[in-house]
Structures are given as C-alpha cells and as structure tokens.
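Query structure, 285 tokens:
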C-alpha cells in the first residue's frame, strides 16, 4: 500500500520575489532587437558606418536595460524591506536612462542617417520616456548603518534568509494534516514576521535578533520539516506530543523575543534561546 503523497506544495525559490519586479524592465531588452537585424542587414549590404551605428546602439540598449533592471530590483527591495542597500548609492535607473539616450542618438545619427538635431531630440525623448516609465532611483534616507555596527547588506541578507526559512516551514505545514498543529505553525510564522518587521523598522535590533533569526529559526525549520516528512498524519502519539511541546516552546520564545526587542534586553533572551536550542536537539521529532 502506498504511503501519503508528498511534495504537494510548490518548491520555494528565493529568487522568485526578486525577479518579478525586475521583469518590468524586460521590455527594454526586446525593443532594440530590430537594431541588431538592421546592423546585420547593413553589414551584408556593405554599409559599414550604418552597421556600426545600429550595432553600437543595440549594445548600449542592452547595457541600459541591465542598469534599469538592477535599479528596479533595488527599488522593489527598498519598498519591501524599508531598507536601501549601500549599492543603491549608484543611481542605476538614471544612468540606464542616459545610456539609452546615447544608444538612440547613435542609432538615429549613424545608423539611420537622421540629422544631428533630430537624432539628439530622439535621444532626449528616450531619456525622458525611460524616466517616466521606470522612475528615478529610491531615496537613500535609510538609517546610518555604520553608526550601529552593521551594513544594510548584512541586515537584508539575514532577513532574506529568514524569509526562506519561513516559507520552508509553511511548505512543511501544508504537508501536516493535524489542524491544531497547522494553526500553531501559522501563528509561529506570523510571530517571526512580526520580529522581522521590528528589525526592519530599527536595524539596531539586528544585534539582538541575529541569533533568533539564524540559529534558532534554522532549528525550527529542521524540526518542522522532519516531522512533516515522517509524521504528516500524526500517526505516532508520542512523537506528536513531543512536536506539540516543541511548538509550545517556540511560541513562548517568540513572545519573549518580541518583548525583549522592545525592551532592548539581551541577556535574558539569550538564555531563553539557549534553553530552546537544547530542547530542539533533545526532542526526537
């Protein structure tokens, strides 16, 4: 007799949420394609100057699309996380718009043989159109990370790792058929996201939340996935009780974590996390 079917939940790809907003810039990769064909056509026709103009314009359009796409990704992350990467000090979208303007200018002037003034106007119109569609780069009014001993990249890396672990727990939750356990796991992931929100609002809290979001959350993920892999239907009463006890401890630690972050008390919280870590290693779930 076959066992319960697994793997019903879609596998989480941490890059998916980053790729979706960046796909907005994909049109910039498609629109210049005629330039490539025109460059080849002019080259075959022996018109090297025109071919060079279209080829240079196409290459610059590809560069512009890449820059704008990166800028759109940074903007999306800044909106989602309330934190802007240090790398965003480079105005990718504005530079990309400028490169696009140069590309259109060269293609019009050298490739199509359009007069200088008209080519310049086409280039400027391309810059304005690009900025109108994709906007400018995000504001860099984020907290001074250097003053709190962490970089924005470090904060975002830990938050993104935590997101991956939460979604892995949720995927494992979908394979558990005990309603009580599913509801408790749902409350746990909600609590973790609240902790992440506290860190996003004030990255200074990362020092106090780092161990929770990395070491402890990783343990919670492994325990949940292990239970889902072997006891999806809760057919072993003792192991189900053990898992239920672990969930209770996780819930208490989450509440402790939120309270201590708000109170800026680190020492007692570290002790609570160490106790939970020992329980995670001890329980046979």
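Result returned for the query:
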């Amino acid at each position: 007799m076959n066992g319960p079917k697994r793997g019903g939940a879609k596998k989480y790809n941490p890059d998916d949420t980053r790729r979706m907003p960046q796909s907005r810039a994909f049109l910039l990769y498609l629109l210049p394609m005629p330039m490539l064909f025109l460059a080849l056509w002019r080259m075959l026709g022996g018109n090297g100057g025109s071919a060079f103009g279209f080829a240079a314009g196409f290459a610059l359009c590809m560069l512009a699309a890449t820059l704008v796409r990166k800028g759109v990704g940074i903007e999306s992350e800044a909106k989602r996380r309330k934190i802007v990467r240090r790398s965003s000090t480079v105005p990718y979208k504005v530079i990309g718009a400028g490169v696009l303007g140069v590309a259109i200018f060269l293609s019009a002037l050298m490739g199509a043989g359009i007069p200088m003034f008209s080519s310049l106007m086409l280039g400027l119109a391309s810059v304005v159109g690009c900025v109108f569609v994709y906007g400018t780069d995000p504001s860099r009014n984020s907290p001074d990370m250097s003053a709190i001993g962490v970089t924005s990249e470090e904060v975002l890396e830990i938050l993104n790792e935590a997101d991956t672990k939460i979604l892995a727990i949720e995927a494992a939750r979908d394979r558990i058929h005990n309603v009580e356990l599913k509801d408790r796991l749902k409350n746990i992931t909600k609590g973790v996201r609240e902790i992440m929100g506290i860190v996003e609002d004030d990255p200074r809290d990362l020092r106090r939340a780092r161990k929770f979001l990395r070491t402890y959350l990783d343990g919670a993920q492994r325990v949940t996935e292990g239970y889902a892999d072997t006891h999806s239907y809760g057919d072993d009463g003792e192991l189900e009780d053990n898992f239920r006890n672990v969930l209770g401890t996780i819930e208490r630690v989450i509440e402790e974590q939120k309270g201590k972050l708000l109170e800026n008390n680190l020492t007692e919280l570290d002790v609570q996390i160490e106790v939970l870590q020992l329980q995670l290693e001890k329980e046979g779930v």
